[in-house]
């Protein structure tokens, strides 16, 4: 047999992942955004296109004017060459017309690899605009301004983007660290209480898998969070973002090539629930239920102490979440519980061996490669009975 010849080189592409915390990002005296956009400007003004979640104008009719006025102050260095609005929420990732529209805008605005596409909105808008930026011209610089608690503490500070396709969440997407993330806490003021708590649950998640002391503090500050105390919100978002970024940077697997996904604790149930409910159940609400299932499962298989499991479920409920939804017991015509298909879909989406994170203790997770369907169903039935006997929180 002829010997194969080979050329082999290592390609190293360093990324700097930066997350800033500020307030009033579009006030003229706040130069953070302008400096991020001009740090590598040579000669001509940098071209910048802004894509915005339309809810921002719903809550502040002068929002677009503010953005234009801000960039106008720096017009010698920044050319704001376009602005468009998109609906927020999962519709934006489900209907690819919006993505196509944005590609057209990018082409019309003559953006290039040295230009910036700024996304301002919730996780859905950031995922869609991030995907457009990563793929148009094989990569335009992307700057993210997350405007929900969930995206400021979790989704928006990560390195993934994507849209839904073939009925599957994030079926099309890339790993592409943004140029920078700028968290302006003032955006959160217009969120409803239910939208606000969605960010809290991802903080609880990251505390459960990484940091028991953080969990204790969230537990002791739950009332402050429910009452939307600004300092406590600022604290939980920043701490959650810090943990997410630390995990991405320090786990040795920022682009998720291996099988372990601790940040997806509770998410195998959550993703399936979101799809089964046609996204009527929000991501945060689904994660709350998914974590409750995996917490009880961790207890039932003898890893997590009953006292700790109760503390976790109580905190989830205290923050206003339900820990059960009837979709959990939906059965197909063939008699199979549909939520269990979530396990197969999770494995299929991530590739490799099924790897689910469970808890030994609060702040201490471990990985399993097998979950026992009978035990999962017992956990779900336990949550059903618990929720039937307690008054429902507002939903
Ligand atoms: N890329 C990742 O790593 C990652 C991680 C977690 C979640 N996500 C994705 O993020 C999405 C969920 O993001 P989300 O929870 O931010 O919700 P979202 O983007 O769906 O927004 C929820 C709602 O809030 C509105 N909204 C946004 N900002 C607002 C503001 N300041 N005031 C009032 N309303 C506002 C939106 O218009 C929308 O109606 C999901 O698609 C999820 O898959 C991505
Ligand atoms: Zn999540």
TrEMBL record:
CDD domains found in the cross-reference section: DHQS-like
Ranges for domain 3-dehydroquinate synthase C-terminal: 199-324
Protein source organism: Rubellicoccus peritrichatus
Domain 3-dehydroquinate synthase N-terminal: start-end pairs: 87-197
EC assignment: 4.2.3.4
Coiled-coil ranges (or none): none
Source organism, top-level taxon: Bacteria
GO MF term set: 3-dehydroquinate synthase activity
GO biological process, alphabetically ordered: amino acid biosynthetic process; aromatic amino acid family biosynthetic process
Pfam families the record matches: DHQ_synthase, DHQS_C
Top-level class of the enzyme under EC nomenclature: lyase
Keywords: Amino-acid biosynthesis, Aromatic amino acid biosynthesis, Lyase, NAD
Cofactor(s) in the UniProt record: NAD(+)
SUPFAM superfamilies: Dehydroquinate synthase-like (SSF56796)
Protein's recorded name: 3-dehydroquinate synthase
